[in-house]
Specification:
Blueprint: H1 4-11, H2 13-18, H3 20-23, E1 31-32, E2 35-41, H4 47-59, E3 65-70, H5 76-86, E4 93-97, E5 100-101, H6 104-110, E6 114-117, E7 122-123, E8 129-130, E9 133-134, H7 142-162, H8 166-176, E10 187-188, H9 189-195, E11 200-201
Parallel strand pairs: 2-3, 3-4, 4-6, 5-7, 6-11
Antiparallel strand pairs: 1-2, 7-10, 8-9
Helix pairs in contact: 4-5, 5-6, 7-8
């Protein structure tokens, strides 16, 4: 769990205030609007962090709950671990993105039945990076090719669940796989909505 001071750094004081019921205390169940909250709030997602989140996920009772996401992304393995745990309960999850869900954070937000974003929330492409290069651009590397293939399969799987119209789905696929903009390019919630992703923009979530 992260401290209140670090939460303010990650999320901004206004979000910490708005989600006081989520993050104010570690003593009891964390609730937001009466539902449990799973927090994926870390600058960089690591395997130990993913393990701790999965442990918390297993303790959440069956039924609707929120996943609060604020991250710049992280290790592909860590993101894959979280996806495999979350997909089993996807129909129960509403993703909350007040501020940032970059890279792997975007992929985790897609692993939900609904996304609620703040008015200044940003997402990004999810194509895996090895060093400073996009994995798909690395030639003669079976590992890089596998990373690219696995992430593309997850994007296809999640978009098929979220977006009914094939044309919009194809457009979003190209956007998320880094074919239209660079990996680090910020994509606003409004831009994703225009591109065809169904999400709610909550102006109180900021």
């Amino acid at each position: 769990m992260i401290s209140g001071r670090l939460a303010k750094v990650l999320l901004g004081a206004s979000v910490v205030t708005a989600l006081a019921a989520v993050a104010a205390s570690q003593r009891g169940p964390q609730l937001y609007k009466g539902r449990p909250v799973l927090r994926i709030t870390a600058p960089y997602l690591t395997i130990p962090f993913a393990e701790s989140v999965i442990d918390q996920l297993d303790r959440i009772p069956r039924g609707p709950f929120y996943v609060l996401i604020d991250t710049y992304g992280g290790q592909v393995t860590a993101v894959a671990m979280l996806l495999k745990a979350m997909i089993e309960r996807r129909e129960e999850i509403t993703a909350l993105v007040p501020r940032l869900a970059f890279s792997g954070g975007t992929l985790l937000a897609l692993c939900s039945r609904a996304i609620v974003a703040g008015p200044r929330a940003y997402f990004s492409p999810v194509d895996p990076q090895i060093g400073k290069c996009a994995a798909r651009e690395i030639e003669d590397s079976p590992v890089a090719a596998q990373y690219s293939m696995q992430i593309a399969e997850w994007v296809d799987r999640l978009l098929a669940l979220l977006v009914a119209e094939p044309a919009r789905r194809d457009n979003l696929r190209s956007l998320f796989l880094g074919e239209l903009v660079p990996h680090g390019w910020p994509l606003s919630a409004s831009e994703l909505a225009i591109a065809g992703l169904s999400l709610e923009i909550d102006r109180g979530l900021q």
